[in-house]
Amino acid sequence: MKGLIIKPAVLLLAITLLLANLFGPLTSVNAQTPLPQRKSYQFTNGQWFDGTGFRHRAFYSINGVLTLKKPESIDTVFDLKNGYVIPPFAEAHNHWLEPQRVDEYIRNYLSDGVFYVKDEANMPYIVSQFRDKLNRPTSVDFVTALQGFTGSGGHPLEIIRQFQKMGILPKEWTDSDLDGKAILIVDDAREIPRKWSLLLESKPDFVKVFLNYSGQGESRKGNPKKIGLNPGFLPEIVRLAHKAGLYVSAHISTAADFHNALVAGVDEIAHLPFVDFDKELGNEHFLISKADARLAARRGVRVITTLGWLVADLGSDPQRAEEARTQVIIPNLRLLKRYGVKLLIGSDQFRQTSLPEILLISSSGVFTNLELLKMACEGTPRAIFPQRKIGFLREGYEASFLVLDGNPLMNFEEIKNIRLRFKQGYLLDLKK
Fold first, then answer.
1. pLDDT digits (tens, 9 = 90+) for 32-84
2. Which helix (H) or strand (E) holds 331?
3. Is there a domain that residue 51 lies in?
4. How far apart are CA 94 and CA 349, in angstroms?
5. Which residue from 26, 120, 306, 409 has the fewest beta carbons nearer than 10 Å?
């Protein structure tokens, strides 16, 4: 839930805007909105991404599925006019915390070509207010961890308390309600079974845990951004999650957190180690070790980028931001790439999509255009929805794709120039 703590003043402004609802909805989609009948489409003169480059070919969409076989009847022929066709983008780390603005969120994500979203911790009370608007062919597909595990006084409890003070949460909620309905606080291993049962009642899509500056001892006291779950409790939570068929994603701040999450058996690490970058500790506390990079690769652990914090949290201190970028972030990215660790694209910037994150990663110079395009269009979507046929433009896969004006392998900025958007066989008309 890092996405709400850019600065206290910004947090206050965000909550004030939420309460005032100054921005009207830009689109309206819900479970009761009837969908038009799917049409049979032919797409001609398109350059289709095949995982290594672009090939000129003709595809068809039948019942929301791509095929190379011409159907008996075609309702509409689309001349793609030599446009470059790619799978849609995904957002692997955000928090949809403003129910009154979800229509705007949906429109902005679809506009940027981001069709798949992973919410890395939320509250059932908030998600229940917009869940019926999601996971539809004309909306965004969404999964969420709901309540995450932390320790007393730890992140993100400071954000939840702000919500409580501003009246966003039910007035009747007490501190005891927060622990269970908003977050799961564990200070004793004996509390884990009861808290685990509370989480399962909420029906999460995966499990979130918060590790913050683990191993820093006394220096963590009194600072919520440096307090989280005792890493000693993490193996049991991982065991319970895997038994229930759920994966575990770990918020981390330091390289020690990264290591503790790995050895506890988590499946995913929700940040690169630089969030809440504490310059006084020294860069070595945020640099991933070669041994941990090898272990992450060997175990198939995914790592989410969240480079957006380089701008959001460090933007007011250019020297500090440049130090974090050149001495911590880029070395860590190069190390993870060298050992073949699977990277997912996620911004953790709650009022924007993952498109700026993709471009920020591009500016690091660590990845080729091809590597980054595959990360954005193939790896990240498929990690969020591993059971679905998405991320590739192939026979039998969902008819979801973007048509770009130019070739992103030649000029990566072309990912911003989206001409057409199709999702599960529907042409998305965002002008309505």
1. 567 888 899 999 999 999 999 999 999 999 999 999 999 999 999 999 999 99
2. helix 330-338
3. no
4. 6
5. 26
The answer to whether 53 and 308 have CB atoms below 8 angstroms apart is no
The answer to whether residues 149 and 278 touch, using CB atoms and an 8 Å cutoff, is no
pTM, rounded to two decimals: 0.91
Cis bond upstream, residue 408 (ω within 30): no
* Domain of residue 314, CATH code: 3.20.20.140
Task: Please say whether the beta carbons of 36 and 137 come within 8 A.
Answer: no
Structure token pair of residue 188: 């004793």
Alpha carbon separation from 8 to 12, 69, 212 (Å, rounded): 6, 56, 19
Pairing of strands 65-67, 76-86: unpaired
Could you list the residue range(s) of the whole structural domain that residue 262 is in?
2-26+89-386
CA–CA separation, 276 and 250 (whole Å) = 15
Q: Is 58 among the domain residues?
A: no
- Residue 3: CB atoms within 10 A of its CB come to 25
pLDDT, position 277: 63
Alpha-carbon distance of 315 to 323, in angstroms, equals 12
d(CA 395, CA 424): 14
| Structural domain includes residue 378 | yes
Cα separation, 404 vs 402, in Å, equals 6
Examine residue 62 and state whether it is found in any structural domain, yes or no: no
**Residue in the block written with tokens 């931001």:** 321
CA distance 17 to 20: 5
Residues pairing with 178 in the sheet: none
Residues 338-354, mean pLDDT to the nearest whole number: 96
Report how many helices (DSSP H) and strands (DSSP E) the chain contains, helices first. Answer: 15, 17
Count of domains in the chain? 1
Dist CA 34 CA 46 (whole Å): 30
Gyration radius (Cα) of the chain, Å: 22
